[in-house]
């Protein structure tokens, strides 16, 4: 995951999905959402609260609804990419530009509902149980982008996955989170836990 600093840079950095990203950007900018960049990708917020993100991967371009679990989803277009792990985040994937264009009105209905929910203060409350943990969104997106990394990550025990998640979450700056992810990628692929060297 590259650490893009602006939305323009992110869109220009995607040869395959530039048109699709620009199309989504124009839709989102025609709302009251505030545009920004977090974790190197475009994010759209209300009063600094994450509402919708967009990202391009090899086979699709997607919208991420940060509290998508609260959306009615009457057309069944949203799904949880990390079933059993992700509580609120839901994504909508588009595999070509024509599919995206034809869904314009439907996209806006989902966007409008997400904005309404955020303005009403409706948010998915994350569990604070010691036995459970949620993946930081930047790590979740990275795992979705790399199936091999995702498979390796999920081969760890829940305790070791939690250590990785907390290591990313504890970083204050988005750039630090991204650099920490780059640091742990080879560890994950090699089956090395974050704190294994201290446990020998």
From TrEMBL:
InterPro entries: YdeI_bac, YdhG-like
Pfam families listed in its UniProt record: DUF1801 (PF08818), OmdA (PF13376)
Coiled-coil ranges from the UniProt annotation: none
Transmembrane spans: none
Domain of life: Bacteria
YdhG-like domain location: 18-115
UniProt protein name: YdhG-like domain-containing protein
